[in-house]
Every structure is written in C-alpha cells, then in structure tokens.
Amino acid sequence: MSEALHIHHDTAVSHDVHHSGDHGHHHQSFISKYVFSMDHKTIAKQFLITGIIWAIIGGLFSVLFRLQLGFPGQSFPILETFFGHWAKGGTIQPEFYYALVTMHGTVLVFFVLTAGLSGTFSNFLIPLQVGARDMASPFLNMLSYWFFFLASVIMIASMFLQTGPASGGWTMYPPLSALGQANDGSKLGADFWLIGMALFIVSQLMAGLNYISTILNMRTKGMSMTRMPLTIWALFFTAVLGVLSFPVLLSGAILLLFDRNIGTSFFLSDIVVNGEVLPNEGGSAILYQHLFWFLGHPEVYIILLPAMGMVSEILSINSRKPIFGYMAMLGSLFAICILAFLVWAHHMFVTGLNPFLGSVFVLLTLLIAVPSAIKVFNWLTTLWRGNIRFTPAMLFAIGFVSLFISGGLTGIFLGNSTIDIHLHDTMFVVAHFHIVMGVASMFGMFAGIYHWFPKMFGRYLNNTLAYFHFWVTLVGAYLIFWPMHYEGLAGMPRRYLDKSIWVSFNQFGSLDQMITIVTVIVFAVQLMFVFNFFYSIFKGRKVTTANPWGATTLEWTTPIRPGHGNWTGEIPEVHRWPYDYGKDGRDFIPQTEPIGANESKH
Amino acid sequence: MEHQSASSEITFQHHVSDAEFSKKVKRTTILLSVITVIELAIGLIIYTIHKGPDPNAYLVLAFKGVVCILTLAKAYYIVSVFMHLGDEIRNMIMTIVVPLMLFIWFILAFIIDGNSYKNLRNTYDKHFQETTTPVHHVEEKKAEEPKPGKQ
Amino acid sequence: MATTATAQQTKWWSGGKSPFNIEYGKLMMWYFLMSDAFTFGAFLISYGTIRFSQNFWPDPNAVFNAFPGAGHANLPLAFVSVMTFILIISSVTMVLAVHAGHNGDKKGVIKWLAWTIVGGIAFLSCQAWEWHHLITGAHATLIDGKIEWVGQTTRVNPWGQLVHGEALTTALNNSTVESLARIVHEQHGNTMTEAQLLGLPKDQLTGMINTAELHVRQNGPVAFGGYFYGITGFHGFHVFSGVVINIIMLIMTQKGVFERRGHYLMIEKAGLYWHFVDLVWVFVFLCFYLI
C-alpha cells in the first residue's frame, strides 16, 4: 500500500502549468485572457454577464405578456414598431403571447437561474473557497461556457424565425410541441429549442463533473468536507443534481426530436389535427411528462440550492455569528438533494397519472417540508441576537428567507393531490413557484453578486442604488405575486391569453392592471441594477482591504485582484471551520489560523 | 510553480502480479460467458414455452426474472473486475453505487404508471382494448408480455 | 501488516489529497459514466413504460431470428449472441490493454488496443447487418385491411398478432396482385418468377396460396421500431465513439506520448468508457432480446 501515498508529480505539474499564475498572465493575448479563458474567475464572469443579458431578455418578455394580461386587447402602437406582425395594430397576437410565455420560462429557468446562478458562483467560489488554483479541468470548464454560449445563440436565433420560437410552454409537452400543424411555435422553433437544450445539457454536464471533482479532489490541506463553507456544499449538491437529472431530459429531448422529425411514436398516439388523422400510434404523452419532470423537479433545486448556500454564508458573516446548526444545514441539503429525485410526479397529479401512485408522491413531496423547515429555522436562529450589518447582500439574503417562507408554505397546498385538483394550472401555481423558486433564487443571486462583487472586480457596487434596488424589488415581488394567490384560489387559469370573457374574473381586472404596472416598475429597477453593475466594474469605489466583510473563508486571503492561480505564494492551509465569528472575544477568526491552545470549542 | 503536495492528487495503481491478474481476468471472462450462455438457454426455453400449446404466463415471468438477476450479476462482474471498481476505496464505490439506488424508484414509478395507462385505456377506450388484446386461439401464440394479477 | 495499518489511518478526507486516491480525470470519467447511465436508463425505462402500456408486444424471438448467410432459417438469439460475445471479448482485450499500460508495456498496449478496435468494428458491422436486415426484410403484414409487404421501420411494425381464419380470407381478397404474387413467390420458391406471377389473375393467385402455411401478422406496436433503432442506435453511437477514442489512444501510444508522460492513465479512462459500452449492451441485450 505504500504506493498509495506516492505522489504523482506529473499530474501536479500538468496542473500547475496553468497556474504559473501572476507571472504568466500578462503574456496572454486578449483572446486567451477574456474570450477563451481557462481562468475559473473569468469564466464565472462570462457566465454572469451572459446570464444578466438573458435575464434582461427574459424579464422583458414577462413585461410584454403582463401588458396583455393587465390590459387585454389594448393597443400599444410602439409594440408594432418593434415586433411587426407579432403585435399587429399594437396588440399582442396569440402566437406572440405564447412564444413570450414559453421563452420567459425557458430563459429564466435554464439560462439565467441555472447557468447564470450556479454557473457563475460555482465557477467563482469553488476554487477560491476550497483552496484550489483552478478547476480540476480548466479546459472542460471553458468548453462548458462555450457550449452554453452556443445554446444561447441557437435559442436567440429561434426568436428570429419566421414562425417564431417554441411556444408550447417551457415544459414543451407533446403532442402540442411535437406537431408542426398544432401551432406555429412547434414548427422550426421547437427543433431549435430542443437542440439548444441538448447543447445546454452538455454544457451543464461538463460544468457539473468539473465542480464535483474539484470539490472532492482539489481541496487544500486541512479543508476536510465538514470544514467547507455551506456555499460549497450547496454548489456540490447542485452539481450532483445536475449530473444525475439532466441526462434524463436529454433522453426526453432526443425522443421528442425523433417524434418530430422521423415519424416515431414515442409520445404520440390517437391524434387528429385539423381533421387529419395522424398515423402515430402507441406512444404516451404522460411518458414525456415523466421524463421532463424527472429533470424538472431536481431543476428546481438546482436553481434554489446555490441561493440557499450563499444566503447561509452571507447571513452568518453579516450577523457576526456562526451559522446555527452547521451539520443540520448540511443534512437538510443532503435530504433535499435526495428527495428532489423522488417527487417529480407531483407536477402531474391531474395528467392521468395513476392516483395511487400520486398519493405516494404526495407523501414524498410533503417530506420536503422537513429539511426546508430546518433550514428556515436555522437561518432565523442565525439572525437571532446577531450583530447584524445591513449590507445590500445581507438585505437580499434576509429577503430570500422571507420569500422562501412565503413561497414554501403555498407549496404544502399544492403538494396535496386533492387540493391540487382545484389549484392546478391556476395563477396560484404561478404565484407559488415564482416566489419560492424564481424571485427567491434571484434574491440569492443578487445577494451573491453584492457580496462577492468586490472579489470579482476589486470594486464595490454603489450602495444607495443597491438599497433602492432591494426595497423596490422586495415590495414589488410581493405586490406582483401575492395577489395572484387570490386569483388562483378563485380559479383563474394561468397561460390564458384573455380572461375577460369570464364575467367572474372581471373583478380582478384592476388587480391585474396593478400587477402589470408594478412589473414595469420592478423591471426598470432591475435595469438600474444592471447599470450599477457595469458602471461599478469600471468606476465603482475601489476595494482597499483584502477582507472587506471580515469573513473567515479562503477567498479573502487572496490578493484584492487575484491573478490566474489565485494565491501568489503557497495555497494556505486550513485549520478550522468557516464560521468562527464572535468567538473568544474576537470578531472573527480566519480559517487559515491554527487552533489556539486555550481556544473554546464551538 | 511549486510542486506542493497540497494541490496535487495522488494517483496509484494496484500493482497486482501478472499471474494473479491473468487468473482473475480469465475467471471473470469464463464467468461472463457462462452466464451469457445460461441467459441464451433461458431465452430459448421461453421461446419454446411460447410456442407450446398452453404457455404458462407465470412460468415465463419467473424465467424472465431469473434472466434479470443474471444480467445484474454480469453487470456486477463487469463493473467490479473489468472497470476495477472493486479495487477502489470503499467511499469511492459508495459514491457510484448509492446514486444508482435512484433507479429503483425511477423504474418502479415509470413502469407502474405505464401499466396504469394501459388499464385506463382498456377501461375507457374499448376500441383500443378490442384491437390490441391478444386473441387466444389454440394454434396461436399467446401475448408475449404476461400480466399476472392485472385485468 | 504495518503498511496496512498506516493506510487505514490515512485521513482521506482531510484535504490536500484525493479522498478516493484517484486523479481527477478518472473521477470525472466515472461520474460522466454515471450520468450516461441515467441517459441510457431513461431510454430503457421509457421503453419499459411503453411496453407496459400495451396489451400486445412482439416476441423478440420472432423478430431477431436471422443469421447472415442462413437464409430464412429460424435461428432465434443466434446472431445477437455472436454480437454479445464480440463485445465481451473486446472488453477483455481492453482490460489487458489497461493492464499492459500499468506495467508500462507499450507493445502490449498497442497489441491489445488494436484487438479492441477490431472487436468494436466487428460489433458495429454486425449491428449494421442487423439493421439492414430488419429494415429491408419485408413481411406480409395486414395494414388497413390489406396485406402489404413491409420491413421493420419506425413507422410500421410487421410483428403484430397472427391473422387467420375469416380475417385472413378477407384480407387476401382485399390485397393487391403485387402483394399476392409476392406471397405465392415466397411460398413456392423458384418455380415461377415474380414477374410471371404478376401476369396471373387474382383468383388464380389466391388459389395458389397455402393459407395453412401463410403467416400474416397485423401491424404491431409501432413504438417497437422507434425504441429498437433509437436505443441500439444510441448504443452503437457510443461504440463508434469508443472506437474513435481507442484509435486516438492507439496513435498516441504509438507516438510514445504516454511513454514520455510516464503513465498510461489515459488508456485507463478510455478503458472505463469501453467497459461502460459493454455494460450498456448487457442491459440492451436483456431488454430487447431476452425478455
């Protein structure tokens, strides 16, 4: 077994080739430094900026279809100027509306909150916080961004097709998405969607494999698994979820492509379109939904877990208190990760799923409340009697906790198949998942950006704009989504173009107008954030200390603007867990400090 | 830069002796071949049962179950010996094996729902039932897929 | 014994080393294979789901009973067992290549890798033959009340239930002269060419058909073809990419890249991929050919 401990210098060398660090990188050309960069920090910024661009596009789409929902049938001539026949006479056409809704979902779920969130922060934080010079495979890391970019190009291209982008909903259920005769979006747009998603999945797999092997293999000396910040744990489970569930969507997408293009019958059976009887026979549309949601549900946690991890850390840092219940936090992350794979069919209670099977899914679904509650109580107890600093990041982190509680509670309603019979496909569902997954994760992302911006760019974001951004977004998010619960309970369906024909929903007319107006305001404030972001990269207040937030973790032991390779000298060794705040009369003790002789135990 | 052991990984191989190694590979190859031959034999038995005058659905099902178990055994030997997973550290083995447990619920839920879809269609789509349910003529083969306990 | 004791005391998880004593590339390969297992798993489970949602499913022994050069002989499972053995043997040669790599034996690596590539190409050729045979091998099938000669494609399935009795007579009456001529030709061999038969009137053709010997099947579940071609195609694609990877490895070994590097870890990773291809085949074999 002595060979077991033999250190293979060769692999070490091949790793350090890229890490020749701060001496090497001014020889790099612009292309290899900023475009095809293999530095994890640059790749993270690429993911972040691409994600921001996507968020603007996806957010704009929601503003457009909210105009239709708030003011059905009203003409906005400016729309025709920009969108031509999609908004004939200034009113949003049905095809356009469905394309907007579909692309809003696809873009926000996959391109912003998966690639933009976990792509950014996994790339940025994993090597910095576990103490590695770069990712395990910087090359694959670069490829993963460029596959994402390619997927983005294809998805953008689909919006410029004559027949428009995919418009069968972001879930792309067949038969609607499988038959070009069924709607315009299912012509070429759906193929673009599926190919774009396939490339996106490839990108996510390469990224996820990299994250996992970096966290397992590249931790610095002393960084045992239980000394890792919760952010890293959350990103680790996110990567595990992605690696195990995205392939299933890939299978579904491939089968759907076959159904669309070579006449197979995986998901199609007994269909008559426009009086034409289709020859497809024997497929099952429910099968696609199973395949989709086997990814789709873990996807929710792929979106949420990074936010949870970052929020845990930011709450602890800015309360100047250790995180409450580190092991419980870890255990609940693990439990969520496992349960995420077992509950997918709760999205399908009313699709013709076997009701008995549905009841098993109800049980498993409601079990998620347990780890979720553990996390919420731990966040609250971390705040309890803390010495709270209300930095913008902290505000967004607290906002995340608030949104996660409000959105999580309505999940208990929807997780019951009996109540779901009434609530499914209503605005209640829209309210639920936007609060708990969409807005909450956005808040986690904002918290992360505000917190790590100094590390990314060596400058601070503007605080005044940040506070304004926070309050408008928080109040706006509740104003937009809270009323939707009432609409949904009253039975108002989602996805509909125009509900004015229902007399019973007319009472919600002014409420819908209010939601639309708030949406426009919130969107404008996000643009302000984007301005703040780009302005601060170049003109923001400079960071002058290496550790501006007084944090314990390793990324703050690097230079203010770390070069490729992160640390100029040796990688620091880790001696303690990352949450030694307010201990033994000291404000904080960095992870790199050896345990003192008379130190108390945490 | 520095060749510090902190960031480098450890690579190793189990240097088994050549004789021991070739013995192990030979044994596994023979084992895999024998299992495959048994599987083929069972396949032919199922074929003859089907051809027979009165195929016993439960017997066929039992044979199919045996084939499934044999396949898992084959998979075990390929992964453990050929892919050397058996020689890895226990924790490594666990990170591979434990996530595969997800397949249990993955398979069960999908198959149960597929079966339920059939029952629903047989109940509510008489045309489907009449045109696809195997007709039991004496000289004819029975349905290939037995459904004990259903319908 | 002393060394074993130290090994047990090694703090695998304390950082600064791989907790599994594996370099990152091999770890990534393992986890990639696991995610790929979920891709294949999803395909095979979808296949199972559809199969369970059908009242009737074709008997694989009736579908896969041909052997190259054996004409119409009924040889269920014969050809696929050849394919299976090819893959198992190529897996064994890969194990030997990896082992030669461990010993730094360049010649051994080249030899065994070459044999593995040969095995892979042989498997792909077998699959090509099988696909070709299934697609072009036409069978008398009852479609829309008429007998037509069709092969196994993604749109039709000639392996439905047998048609007989009155239904068969009606079907024969509805069928075209071409279909009937082909039936007669198949039944009576070379006594008359199909062109000659086409000239005969329909009644006479019908009279020449031996209905007792006639096997006409209904159009079976079309999903069968889609899944068969989809999954074996996806597997074949993996075999193909495995062959390409192995060829690259062979060239790199030949050029002495690994020798200079001092280790043959890349061969090990390529080997993992190759064994995974074999592993998947074990399950494809089970799902499509055995049960």
Biggest interface in this structure?
Answer: B-C, 68 and 65 residues
> Helical proportion of chain B?
55-70%
Number of domains of chain B: 2
Radius of gyration of chain B: 24 Å
Uncertain stretches of 5 or more adjacent residues of chain B: 1-11, 138-151
How far is the N terminus from the C terminus of chain B? 71 Å
Strand percent estimate of chain B: under 5%
Number of domains of chain A: 1
Ends apart, CA distance between termini of chain A: 37 Å
Classify the secondary structure makeup of chain B into a structural class.
Answer: mainly alpha
Please tell me about this protein's structure.
Chain A has a single domain, classed as Cytochrome c oxidase-like, subunit I domain (Cytochrome C Oxidase, Chain A), CATH 1.20.210. Helices cover 62% and strands 2% of the residues of chain A. Chain A has 18 helices and 4 strands. Chain A has helices at 9-16, 21-24, 30-35, 40-70, 77-83, 94-130, 138-158, 188-217, 230-261, 285-319, 326-340, 355-367, 369-383, 392-415, 417-423, 427-457, 463-489, 509-539, and strands at 272-273, 276-277, 581-583, 586-588. In chain A, the strands form 2 sheets. Chain A has a two-stranded antiparallel ribbon. In chain A, strands 3-4 form a two-stranded antiparallel sheet. In chain A, β3 (581-583) and β4 form a beta hairpin. Chain B is mostly helical and 151 residues long. Chain B has 2 domains: 18-100, no CATH class; 102-151. Chain B contains 5 helices and no strands. By secondary structure, chain C is mainly α. Chain C is built from 12 helices and 4 strands; from the N terminus they run αααααβββααααβααα. The radius of gyration of chain C is 26 Å and the shape is elongated. The two termini of chain C are 49 Å apart. The chains are: A mainly alpha (602), B mainly alpha (151), C mainly alpha (291). Chains B and C meet through α1, α2, α3, α4 and α5 of B and α2, α4 and α12 of C.
Layout: helices, strands, pairs:
The complex is a heterotrimer of chains A (602), B (151) and C (291).
Chain A: H1 9-16, H2 21-24, H3 30-35, H4 40-70, H5 77-83, H6 94-130, H7 138-158, H8 188-217, H9 230-261, E1 272-273, E2 276-277, H10 285-319, H11 326-340, H12 355-367, H13 369-383, H14 392-415, H15 417-423, H16 427-457, H17 463-489, H18 509-539, E3 581-583, E4 586-588
Antiparallel strand pairs in A: 1-2, 3-4
Helix pairs in contact in A: 4-6, 4-7, 4-18, 6-7, 6-8, 6-9, 6-10, 6-16, 7-8, 8-9, 9-10, 9-11, 10-11, 10-14, 10-16, 11-13, 13-14, 14-16, 14-17, 16-17, 17-18
Chain B: H1 18-51, H2 57-82, H3 90-100, H4 102-124, H5 126-132
Helix pairs in contact in B: 1-2, 4-5
Chain C: H1 2-9, H2 24-52, H3 60-63, H4 78-102, H5 106-136, E1 139-143, E2 146-150, E3 162-163, H6 165-174, H7 177-188, H8 194-198, H9 202-208, E4 216-218, H10 223-254, H11 257-261, H12 265-290
Parallel strand pairs in C: 1-4
Antiparallel strand pairs in C: 1-2, 3-4
